Amino acid sequence: MTVTVYVPRDSAALSVGADLVAEAIAAHAAATKQSVRIVRNGSRGMLWLEPLVEVETATGRIAYGPVQAEDVKALFDSGFLHGQPHALCHGKTESIPYFQKQTRLVFARIGVIDPLDTAAYQAHGGLIGLQKALALAPMAIVDEVIASGLRGRGGAGFPAGIKWKTTLGVNDSQKYIACNADEGDSGTFSDRMGIEGDPYALLEGMAIAGIAVGATQGYIYLRSEYPDAKAVLLEAIARARASGWLGSNVLGSGKSFDVHVRIGAGAYICGEETAMLESLEGKRGVVRSKPPLPAISGLWGKPTVVNNVMTLMSVPWILAHGGAAYAAHGIGRSKGTLPFQLAGNIQRGGLVEVPFGCTLNQLIHDFGGGTASGRKVRAVQVGGPLGAYLPASKLDLPLDYETFAQAGGMVGHGGIVVFDDTVDMAEQARYAMEFCKIESCGKCTPCRIGSTRGVEVVDRIRSGDRREESTALLRDLCSTMTHASLCAMGGLTPMPVLSALDHFPEDFRKG
Description:
Largest sheet: 5 strands, mixed
Mean pLDDT: 95
Number of helices: 21
CATH topology of the largest domain: Rossmann fold
CATH architecture of the largest domain: 3-Layer(aba) Sandwich
């Protein structure tokens, strides 16, 4: 009898020896004449357990981790091919509390199947959304997305259906779908995990978007730091074309949609949609003035829907199950689920997909187990390097766009970076300004010069140089950057700076 063993091919697992583990399992099985089929799946998101090896048994998949190559012989000796106990055994994967308490819609297949297996993708619900979309009128597809309440998962939270409706309403012979996969925020990795673990879901979501708005070409702008995601994506596109899922006759419908991959050059600013479009066109990544909006005049001056990976990967589920079913999750105007990413000083880092409304306290303590250092949580940054630093007193805020905006923060891409009580928040404020100084495209003065002066003023405050006057100057500078910058790069940089000043003023009085 052949036993199926799952070993992740996700970058996080590869970085801690997953390939060596797979090789060791294959070698030991051959040496002991045991029949084993190794499936390279995506990551379940429990990154502290990687490499997480799973064994298919009659009662379900049994998880072992973190497994190193040197553990393999002992695992075989203990009978792990039959799900027997071992020090690294965690029981059934689905029963691990971290995993069990999630609501997986976007990540439902990730970690379950070989991400490049087209048959497995269909067997686990793939293509249902695209098949339904092909049977609907374009506006009916858009209406489902509007009904779902899906908002852009790239940070701004703009309603995806409204953006699609705008592009659909423009009369043009050529339209585009542009997927922003330039995931540059600190502490974020859901886009990478999505691409590496379920690439066909992204391609299906882009195809649905194309059919909805009348676009025939799609581009994925992938960050250069993701070589594993690139390899998976290119292979997935080739297989999707061969299967008739992409190309001139999508699923035999007579409709055309194809996808191409373009690699960025490592500029954070190209996460901004118009700078990304400039880069896609082969130009320097510099922010465009708006209007016109990309939905009306985007890539090469043509109507373009720009969404990020998580937005587009949500679309197949919405079309398969209906917009109302998706909107049943979440709270207020924040509908559906979001894959939150736990990073920084956290005991159990990883990805957690839950409906909006979950609190930071639940994510950090119930899922993450508190800080890795064992010390108290002092600050949490949500939404990337331009997100606010929130104090421990605000950890019970429900995670939704409006609540966080009222609290002076933003949900953004769902990245959560945890700091314990040893952090120097004045230093973190300086880092935010320095980050903007380095990554600014340079087009507008408030961002280009403001961030440079900001670093200098924070240094003055920290050194005690006319502290009161320098603090007032920093706040004035932040106001100018917020209201006069051309894009969110300069406009949001003051958010972490001001939040550090407001919630942790004592750190600016040291020295």
